Every structure is written in structure tokens, then in C-alpha cells.
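Methods, example record. To illustrate the input and output format used throughout this study, we show the complete record for UDP-N-acetylenolpyruvoylglucosamine reductase. The sequence lines were provided to the predictor; the line carrying C-alpha cells was produced by it.
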Amino acid sequence: MDRVLLETIFTGLAPTILYDEPLAKHTTWRIGGPADVLLIPRTIDEVRAVVLAAKAHDLPLFVLGRGSNLLVKDGGMRGAVLKLGDEFAAIAVSDRTLSALAGRSIVSAAHIAIRHGLSGLEFATGIPGTVGGAVTMNAGAHGGEIKDVLKQATVITSDGTITELSADDLGFRYRHSIVPEQRLTVVQAEFALQPGDTKQLQEKVRAWSKRRQLTQPLSLPSCGSVFRNPPGHYAARLIEEAGLKGLRHGNAMISEVHANFIVNVGQASAADVLWLIRHAQETVQQRFGMTLEPEVRIVGEDETRR
Ligand SMILES: Cc1cc2nc3c(=O)[nH]c(=O)nc-3n(C[C@H](O)[C@H](O)[C@H](O)COP(=O)(O)OP(=O)(O)OC[C@H]3O[C@@H](n4cnc5c(N)ncnc54)[C@H](O)[C@@H]3O)c2cc1C
Ligand SMILES: NC(=O)C1=CN([C@@H]2O[C@H](COP(=O)(O)OP(=O)(O)OC[C@H]3O[C@@H](n4cnc5c(N)ncnc54)[C@H](OP(=O)(O)O)[C@@H]3O)[C@@H](O)[C@H]2O)C=CC1
Ligand SMILES: C=C(O[C@H]1[C@H](O)[C@@H](CO)O[C@H](OP(=O)(O)OP(=O)(O)OC[C@H]2O[C@@H](n3ccc(=O)[nH]c3=O)[C@H](O)[C@@H]2O)[C@@H]1NC(C)=O)C(=O)O
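The corresponding predicted structure is encoded as:
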């Protein structure tokens, strides 16, 4: 996309504006082609200005969290990508409510809740995303989900309106909310928690963390689970039973530790990962008649279309 045009639209709207920024630097998979422009605003007013500028010029705008559930294709993303700046990390606990700006790590928010003797967010201590990403994905683990604890989220709509939405408004389902389809930007969230014993809560999360370290390939770049579990089944078990554990394509590999993780074992491309995703889907469909639906959000363009 024309750089001069982008500069005309966005200059001055955020303190950090990066052109042709490789998104591999911003995803946990360490994969992804360049964004035409990546904007990193510090304040809600700056976020709103970016949203309004994109709308006024009919430019696509994508909101990036920690990139821990994203596959950005090798051709990168056209239009603008917005990432909340480090200033979006404020957090406060009052009575039984924890509120955090959306750029805060959900892991750290969960630990702060525990330290305040509040229970409800423990499930999130192993989920390496932001508060905004966790709300968007209705992130969950160990039987808990964001939808169980979210009181309200403050969002900016695509026409720049700032509004508060309840858990019901957000249309939560398994690893799903209406945030992407409504093109909302989450800027803050409040969680309703219950009193709990800090020591007991810490023991609980320590045990979960040990289990995760044994069952998930945490030392290699990944996006967590690639596929949602089909109702009544486990994606990992289906992929393992199809004989695909350890299958490598280019520098991407179906993990030998956990079959629903694809790990980057070198400088993997998005095309390497997409090949494995499609191969797993086709093989599981043929062998078991089951459809594997990606949990990871696949965005951007193929290299050849640039
Ligand atoms: C090792 C590992 C373990 C994981 N374990 C789990 C797990 O147990 N459970 C689980 O649910 N997930 C897990 N994940 C996946 C991932 O961490 C979660 O989905 C997380 O919630 C994504 O947050 P993020 O900030 O990285 O969002 P991103 O990956 O950057 O984005 C995900 C989606 O959210 C949108 N988004 C992000 N921030 C905002 C915002 N502020 N406003 C509007 N939209 C936004 C993006 O546009 C995109 O659609 C794991 C990932 C890894 C790498
Ligand atoms: N980032 C990644 O790519 C990957 C992350 N993971 C896993 O995801 C989780 C999050 O990792 P990461 O992104 O590095 O972390 P974050 O930066 O999201 O969170 C780290 C913060 O969480 C708080 N915290 C973490 N552990 C504890 C604890 N035991 N007690 C008290 N506070 C704690 C601290 O916050 P504060 O200072 O505010 O108290 C710390 O600064 C970890 O379990 C990690 O193993 C796994 C694979 C990849
Ligand atoms: C990592 C994620 O979330 C994770 C979350 O951390 C864990 C813990 O609560 O439970 C889900 O994994 P999961 O269903 O694969 O959980 P696990 O307990 O590891 O495995 C489920 C079943 O599959 C079997 N299994 C697992 C791995 C494997 O290689 N082969 C296999 O057969 C296990 O034996 C077990 O019977 C979430 N994944 C999904 C898609 O729902 C994520 O969403 O990114």
C-alpha cells in the first residue's frame, strides 16, 4: 500500500508508527510477513483517532494483542495494524473487582488477583496473551473461561464510539466472542472475582503449571492449540491417532509433545504451518470423518499476492 498515502493518513496520530513492520516480531510463533503500518498508541484518545482515520479512508484495521493466537501469512497485512502501547497496562483491585487496561498481560493480572486473595482468574496463569486478547478469544483452561468472570469490557466501535459491554453482549462461546466480527477494540476489562485463600490458589496454579510444562511444548515458539476440540473429542488425540505426531514440513512440526501444537523449529514460514494445518484437517477428515476447525486466527495475505 502506498507509503505516502499512509503517512498522510496516520502521521501524528500515535507516538510510534512503524512502516513495513515484520509481524514475526509480534507473534509468539515468530512467524508473519510485514504490516503496511503498525501503530502503537498510548491513550484511548489516540486509539480512537487511529480507528476513525482508518474508517474515514476505508482502510482495514487489525488489532493485535501479544500475537499468541495468530498466524499472520507470509505476505503480511494490508492496511493498518494497531497494538496497544505499554501504557495500557494499568491494573486496580477494589473489593472483589479487578479492572485492567487491555494491554496488560492476563498472566500477570491473574497473579495479582491471587495475591489479593481473589479467585476466578487462576485458569489464566498459563495463557500468554493480553487482557484484550483473552476477552476476544474467550480464553480458557482447566475448566475456566473468561466468560465466567468478565463483568464488563470497555470497547471502541469501528465508528469511534466508546461503550461498555457485558459478558452477554459479547456473545461468548468456546474460544469465541463478537469482538473480531464487530471490529471492536477492547481497551479495558473488569472481572468479578470471589474471595479465596492466596496460598491455596498459588498451590493450585503451581500444579497446573507443572502439568502444562509436562504436556505442552513450551520451549519452542507456538500459538498454543491450533484447533478447537470438536464436541466430545480432543483434536490432539485425533491427530495423534492419525499418525501425524512429529510430522515436519519445512521448519514447522506437529509437536511430538502435544499433537495439537505446531512448533516453529527454525525459521518456519506461515506457508509451512498452513501446509501442516491443511494436511491434519484432510487426514483427520478422511480417517475419522471429523472436521478440525482452527482456533488460531489466520490473517494476512499469501506471499505471492504482494
Ligand atoms: C504456549 C501457549 C499456550 C496457550 N494456552 C492457551 C490456553 O490454555 N487457553 C487459551 O484459551 N489460549 C491459549 N493460548 C492462546 C492465546 O494465548 C490466547 O488465545 C490469548 O487469549 C490471545 O491473546 P493475545 O493478546 O495474544 O491476542 P492475539 O493473538 O494478538 O489476537 C487474538 C485475537 O484477539 C484480537 N485482539 C487482541 N487484542 C485485542 C483488543 N485489545 N481488542 C480487540 N481485539 C483484540 C485479535 O485481533 C485476534 O482476533 C496459548 C498460546 C500459547 C502460545
Ligand atoms: N510468552 C511466550 O511466548 C510463552 C509463554 N509461555 C507461558 O505463558 C505464561 C506467560 O508467560 P510470559 O508471556 O513470559 O509472561 P507475562 O509477561 O505474560 O507475565 C509475567 C508476569 O506475570 C506475573 N507472574 C508470572 N508468574 C508469577 C508467579 N509465579 N507469581 C507471581 N507473579 C507471577 C508477573 O507479573 P507482575 O510483575 O505484574 O506481578 C510477571 O511479570 C507462562 O506460564 C509461560 O511459561 C509459554 C510459552 C511461550
Ligand atoms: C492451549 C490451549 O488450551 C488448552 C488448555 O491449555 C488445556 C488445559 O486446560 O485444555 C485444552 O487442551 P487439550 O484439550 O488438548 O488438553 P490436554 O489435557 O492436553 O489433552 C486432552 C486429551 O488429549 C490427549 N492427547 C493430548 C496430547 C497428545 O499429543 N495426544 C493426546 O492423545 C490427552 O491424553 C487427553 O486425553 C485446551 N485446548 C483446547 C483446544 O481447548 C489453547 O487454547 O491454545
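Annotations derived from this record:
The helical segments are 3-10, 44-56, 106-115, 131-137, 146-149, 198-215, 235-241, 270-288.
The chain has a mean pLDDT of 97.
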